[in-house]
Specification:
The protein is of the alpha/beta class and 382 residues long. It has two domains: 179 residues, 3-Layer(aba) Sandwich (Rossmann fold); 179 residues, Glycogen Phosphorylase B (Rossmann fold, 3-Layer(aba) Sandwich). The chain contains 15 helices and 13 strands. The strands form two sheets. The chain has a seven-stranded parallel sheet, with helices on both faces. Strands 10-9-8-11-12-13 form a six-stranded parallel sheet, with helices on both faces. The longest helix is centred in the middle third of the chain and has 21 residues.
Length: 382
């Protein structure tokens, strides 16, 4: 097959998880704002699909996470890699942009390198958390790496990577923390439930979080829960999990889908699956208990490869246990409720936690991460 010369008006972007989908969509908007003639082809999720010129596949809906789960999608992975390979051969994009999701994206980067198509990494994978040897592979396969935590720069420079800290993209999305009376009038506490963004995570965490909320409800009858859901999963997916705990859940629990974080900013406390949601809560000043459960096989591997003391981004950045982490067998209704009561029954602790958590904003750079990355990418192409 004859290969055409790359064109600066054709870019391929690949993301594979919900948070990557959000930030990749912001990057696409920034690229198009700087050059309206650019054509963006993407493989990711619904947010990227909305702003892309062409969309290949909803990779986010696959929801592969952990160590064992990707093997279940092995043949799908092969099919998708073939799609990407065919696209590169036929369209010869000016560049490829990988967004997080190392397991799939390192293969995409390899395909691009083999075809001498320049590649960039926006939101580099958390190689500092496990398997730091991946940093050298990423450095070798990319023209430039855009990291979102300041401590990542040194890691990539150590392996001769061309790396730039662009700031955290959440700073462009998060409103200022809301002013809310503590305690609220009549004990009407707002409790957040953030069970995760993947099907398996939701199934593992939602019943536990909901039961912990009903423990709170026993002592604070006017408390209300808000389940924050991602667009990939409809209410029909969530309702069976809710009904398994309480068939009258709808009078106590509201399912929320939002883009502006207004409802989230009104929370007094949250039960939160480990992930980006923990950092979002912190920037909004929401105290939380962080929990995570995974299959035993994945957990045993994770313990052996983990290179960090904590799992939540909040604790990793602050370098201390600012939020309680309840993992595997410790992710129980009793311990989650106990942590919630330690805040709800002690309002000064809530105020102190809010102050500490919102202090994270100053540690994440400045707003404009997508715009800075877009400008650098276009300067390379031009």
């Amino acid at each position: 097959m004859a290969k055409t010369a790359p064109t600066t008006k054709n870019i391929l972007i690949v993301a594979g998880d919900p948070s990557g989908d959000v930030h990749a969509a912001a990057l696409i908007r920034a690229l198009k704002a700087k050059d309206p003639e650019i054509s963006i082809t993407s493989m990711g999720g619904v947010r990227m699909q909305e702003v892309s010129s062409h969309f290949i596949y909803n990779l986010v809906s696959v929801g592969a996470v952990g160590f064992a789960e990707p093997f279940k999608n092995f043949f799908l992975w092969l099919k998708l890699i073939k799609l990407v390979r065919r696209y590169m051969d036929e369209k010869r994009p000016a560049c490829v942009i990988a967004v997080d999701f190392y397991g799939f994206n390192h293969q995409v980067l390899g395909l691009a390198a083999h075809r001498k198509i320049p590649a960039f990494y926006y939101i580099s994978p958390q190689v500092w958390a496990s398997r730091p040897g991946r940093a050298a592979k990423i450095a070798k396969l990319t023209k430039e790496i855009f990291c979102i935590f300041p401590f990542e720069e040194a890691l990539y420079k150590k392996v001769n990577g061309n790396v730039t800290f662009v700031g955290h993209p959440l700073l462009d999305m998060m409103p200022e923390p809301a002013e809310r009376p503590i305690p609220p009038p009549d004990g009407a506490w707002n409790i957040g439930i953030l069970p995760g963004s993947r099907r398996a995570e939701i199934a593992r965490h939602l019943p536990i979080f909901l039961n912990a909320f009903y423990r709170i409800k026993e002592s604070h009858p006017k408390a209300k829960a808000f389940v924050f859901a991602v667009p990939e999963f409809s209410d029909e997916h969530l309702v069976p999990e809710l009904e398994s705990v309480n068939k009258y859940w709808s009078k106590d629990v509201e399912i929320v889908r939002e883009k502006d974080y207004k409802q989230r900013s009104q929370l007094d406390f949250a039960f939160t699956c480990s992930g980006t949601a923990t950092l979002e809560n912190a920037l909004l000043g929401v105290p939380m208990a962080v929990a995570y459960k995974m299959p035993r096989f994945s957990w045993e591997i994770a313990k052996r490869v983990a290179n960090v003391q904590y799992v939540s981004l909040v604790n990793i950045i602050l370098k201390k246990p600012a939020v309680k982490e309840l993992l595997q067998e410790k992710a129980t209704v009793d311990l989650l409720a106990q942590e919630a009561f330690s805040f709800l029954n002690n309002p000064p602790r809530i105020r102190a936690a809010r102050k500490e958590l919102t202090g994270l904003r100053a540690m994440l750079g400045s707003s404009g991460a997508a715009e800075r990355a877009a400008a650098k990418i276009l300067s390379h192409l031009n």
